[in-house]
Write a structure and sequence with these properties.
With about 140 residues, the protein is of the alpha+beta class. The chain is built from two helices and four strands, in the order αββββα. The longest helix has 22 residues, at about 10-30. The radius of gyration is 34 Å and the shape is flat.
């Protein structure tokens, strides 16, 4: 007489789990704001910068106020534009020539670089003076 074949409950549970995961994937892919081309799935993202010396970067200027930075590296100029949705307009908010800004070494910063340099040098000097001197060596009489 043959033994009745016992059904493997673990196999059924694994198949049910796989079917549920496949269903979740189908729901996620079919949604409007997420697709297989989404950055979350490793899809291509739209370029946010330019080339040829002119670069643009979107930014949030204030909460719920958006705009963009435009930088021309050849002219060394930075511009900030604000998008006003009520007016449907892109408005120039600020512009600056930054060639001479790059020459500044310590502007409106605390502490100044020379204070930090002095603290580092003082710490190195104090560390050398605080360390105990090595014990004196006793010449040995072996003649070597």
């Amino acid at each position: 007489m043959r033994k009745p074949r016992r059904r493997n409950i673990l196999a059924y549970a694994l198949f049910a789990n796989a079917a549920m995961l496949a269903g979740i994937m189908i729901v996620l892919v079919s949604r409007d704001h997420i697709g297989m081309a989404s950055p979350a799935f490793g899809g291509a993202t739209p370029p946010i910068a330019g080339g040829g010396g002119v670069y643009i970067m979107p930014c949030e200027l204030h909460p719920s106020v958006w705009g963009c930075y435009l930088m021309d590296t050849d002219q060394q100029t930075l511009c900030v534009y604000e998008y006003r949705s009520g007016e449907r307009a892109l408005v120039l908010t600020a512009a600056r020539h930054f060639r001479y800004d790059l020459g500044l070494k310590d502007y409106n910063t605390f502490p100044a670089w020379y204070d930090v340099q002095k603290q580092v040098e003082d710490a190195a000097t104090n560390q050398r003076t605080v360390l105990p001197n090595p014990p004196p060596t006793v010449p040995d009489n072996t003649g070597k």
